[in-house]
Amino acid sequence: MKTDIILCGVGGQGILSIATIIGEAAIKENLYIKQAEVHGMSQRGGDVQSNLRLSSEPIHSDLIPLGGADVIISMEPMEALRYLPFLKKDGWIITSSTPFVNIPNYPDIDVIKADLAKLGNVILLDIEQQAKEAGVPRSANVILLGAAQKALGIEYEKLEDAIRRVFGRKGEAVVEANIKALAIGKAESEK
């Protein structure tokens, strides 16, 4: 088993929380894991990106080469396209459909969605709206993780357990909100 994942978005959207959950689940699966993070100006709405590599065999580098990513999980649609050169031909993009407009020349969202629609394996979700409607507004990132579960090759229950361990110190309400969000994403990916 080998899965190379690029997680991307804008500072404060929860990309590193997703990486922590996936990493925790992978460790419990006895997988090898390597991670490289680029925080940029994350506190000011800058680019945040993480390379996450999982394997049943030892991993020698924490960086994913061009054309090597199995999955791109993006909290922001333009960021998904930014990392497209790293995606394998049959790789998956799981991304939020809601733009985070933090630059004056942000591209037209309809153009971005049209570019994503041209690709083969794309799940595009309005996670912000889904999170609000479900009463879990701070867990939109975990909805995206739930939608990515199959592409990651990690059992759903392992991700649930990882959420319990990662968020357990924050209390049962936070744990349950994130488990609910994970289930919403999984259900959306099966539609």
Description:
The chain has 191 residues and is an alpha/beta fold. Helices cover 41% and strands 24% of the residues. Strands 2-3-1-4-5-6 form a six-stranded mixed beta sheet. The mean pLDDT is 92.
Largest sheet: 6 strands, mixed
Low-confidence stretches: none
- The ordered string of helix (H) and strand (E) elements is EHEEEHEHEHHHH
Number of helices: 7
What structural keywords apply?
191 residues; alpha/beta; 7 helices; globular
Summed up, what is this model?
The protein is an alpha/beta fold and 191 residues long.
Q: What is the topology?
A:
Layout: E1 2-10, H1 15-28, E2 32-38, E3 47-55, E4 69-74, H2 77-82, E5 87-96, H3 109-117, E6 121-125, H4 127-133, H5 140-152, H6 156-167, H7 172-189
Parallel strand pairs: 1-4, 4-5, 5-6
Antiparallel strand pairs: 1-3, 2-3
